Automatic annotation (TrEMBL):
Keywords: Hydrolase. This is PaaI family thioesterase. Residues 61-135 form the Thioesterase domain. The lineage of its organism: Bacteria, Pseudomonadati, Pseudomonadota, Alphaproteobacteria, Sphingomonadales. Pfam families: 4HBT. InterPro entries: HotDog_dom_sf (IPR029069), PAAI_dom (IPR003736), Thioestr_dom (IPR006683). Coiled coil: none annotated.
Length: 159
């Protein structure tokens, strides 16, 4: 029996699914707090473009770890959910590695699927600053939920 990702590729519905995930991201209430934009170019990958500023700083004048987590988790999450067209997936664990302090400016979160296609997925992500340097990376595990994507506000396919 073919899994859901095979159905997406076979029916040519991948691009519609990717655009629907991008709309879902854009309409999520949390993303009204972040100047960001999601792009999914192919199954198993996601890129999110962020602009960070002093609103996200901790007391020592650099971006707080919660913002790192948000950016990394989102990129890995959407890379994994790009392979699942029927259900919303949920983060079950996430590990972070901070390598460089981040100040204001553009940041790209690059996510990629690593393994899993049925129930549990592993994906990783890295943050790249405006100079092209990696400033953090993370790996997460994600699980299919019982929540249909089609039931979520913002998830609208072009089909």
């Amino acid at each position: 029996m073919a899994d859901e990702s095979d159905k997406i590729a076979d029916t040519g519905g991948a691009q519609g699914h990717f655009r629907a995930l991008e709309r879902l991201y854009a309409e999520a209430p949390i993303n009204q707090l972040f100047d960001s934009r999601l792009e999914i170019g192919e199954a198993g990958t996601a890129r999110i473009f962020f602009d960070v500023d002093e609103r996200y700083y901790h007391a020592a004048g650099a971006v707080h770890g919660t913002a790192y987590f948000k950016m990394l988790d989102d990129a890995a999450f959407y890379a994994a959910n790009s392979l699942v067209s029927d259900r919303f997936i949920l983060t079950t664990a996430f590990n972070l590695l901070f390598t460089k302090p981040l100040k204001s400016g553009p940041v790209i979160a690059e996510g990629r699927w690593v393994s899993g296609k049925r129930r549990v997925f592993v994906a990783d992500a890295r943050l790249v600053d405006s100079e092209g340097e990696e400033i953090a990376r993370g790996t997460g595990t994600f699980m299919r939920s019982h929540i249909p994507l089609a039931s979520l506000p913002g998830y609208k396919t072009d089909d």
